[in-house]
Amino acid sequence: METANQVISNRAVTKSDKAIGAVVRTIRLSREMSQTELGEKIGVSFQQIQKYEKGTNRLTITRANQIAIALDVPLGDIIADSLKVSGADLVVSNFLTDAKNAGLIEAWYKIDPDIRAELRALIFACAGSKS
Q1: Which of 46, 51, 54, 128 has the least C-beta neighbours within 10 A?
Q2: Could you tell me if 68 and 117 lie in one domain?
Q3: Are 66 and 118 found together in one domain?
Q4: Is 93 found in the same domain as 32?
Q5: Are 49 and 78 in contact, with CB atoms under 8 Å apart?
Q6: Does 56 share its domain with 116?
Q7: Rounded to an integer, what distance in angstroms lies between the CA atom of residue 121 and that of residue 116?
C-alpha cells in the first residue's frame, strides 16, 4: 500500500510546477545569479536548479522557501507570480531565458520587414501551423 508521501512524489509534474520554475528562473536572472550560485546557496547542484526551473522536478515548500530566501524575495511573491503565468507565458519565458537565444530578438529586428514576413511564414510552415 502506498503512503501519502509516495502518492505525492509519484504525481506528474503540473503546469503549476512549470510556472513556479519559470518565475524562479526569471527572478534568478534578474539578480544576475547563476544556477550554480543559487544551488550553492541552498545546497543542491546546478543541475537540480535546472530541473526546478524547467519544472522537471517538483519543488517542496521547504525547498521553495530556501530558494526564496536565497533570491531575497518573499515566497508568497513567487507563488502569486506563478499563478499569473499562462502556458503561452511559459513558452515565451523559456525562449527568452535560453542562453542559445540571446540576441535573437535584437537580430530579428535588424532584418528587413519584408524578409521578416517571409521568414515568419517559413517558420509557421515548418511548424505545421497557420498564423
Answers
A1: 128
A2: no
A3: no
A4: yes
A5: no
A6: no
A7: 9
